[in-house]
Amino acid sequence: MSEIETERLRLRMFKPADFDAIYNVWSDRDVMRYIYPAGWPHSREESRVFVPRLVGRFEQHGWGQWAVVVKDEEKLIGYCGLKFLDDTPEVELLYGIAKDYWNRGLVTEVAKATLRFGFEEARLAYIVAIALAENAGSWRVMEKAGMRRDGTMMHAGLEHLRYKLTRDEFAPDAAPYILRRRPE
After folding, report:
1. Within 10 A of 144 (CB to CB), how many other CB atoms are there?
2. Are 116 and 132 in contact (CB under 8 A)?
3. Distance, CA of 86 to CA of 125 (rounded, Å)
4. Cα 7 to Cα 62: distance, rounded to the nearest angstrom
């Protein structure tokens, strides 16, 4: 299992004790309005299966979604990582953080770190990301992370902007990035 440290954040595996903190993010309508436009579809009890599922993806693929923790506060504020884009063989960059931490460049920081991991460690040929057109904050993150617009696609019955970055196009910046491998 891997952890990543950036300038301000730590990306680490989820653990059962994280449920309350991540559920607070998942249940915030402002955070989830573009991720699940109809709202987070699960009750608190139904959502308990998601943390073990996130850990299982790392065990299955060697990559997945990390808990995003602010280093100075040791506070979990969201998630970022990679997963298969629903009903496709493509790997998607995805993220979501608590709105108290929006507009600080934190999502761009974790997006860049996740892309670097995806290309350098997971050896993916390319990574995609999608966002609703009205979610300007999300597609700006994709662009700042070096992704380019690659058309549109239907997802969950809605048209999304599609972004893509190939391993050959990827150019890591000089931002701090420390990868730590943890014993499994």
Report:
1. 14
2. no
3. 18
4. 23
Here the tokens at position 138 are 């999300």
CA 92 to chain centre: 8
pTM: 0.92
Q: Given this model, what pLDDT does residue 41 score?
A: 60
Residues in the chain where the model's pLDDT stays below 50: none
Instruction: Tell me if residue 1 falls in helix, strand or coil.
Output: coil
What is the Cα 49 distance to its own chain's centre?
A: 18
Closest CA to 33 of 137, 150, 109: 137
Query: Which residues of the chain form beta strands (DSSP E)?
Result: 2-5, 9-12, 65-70, 75-84, 91-97, 126-132, 148-155, 158-166, 178-181
| Exposed / middle / buried, residue 76 (Cβ in 10 Å: 0-12, 13-18, 19+) | buried
pLDDT tens, position by position, 46-86: 778 888 888 888 888 989 999 999 999 999 999 999 999 98
Q: Check if the beta carbon of residue 63 is closer than 8 Å to that of residue 82.
A: yes
* Rounded-to-integer distance, Cα 115 and Cα 94, Å: 10
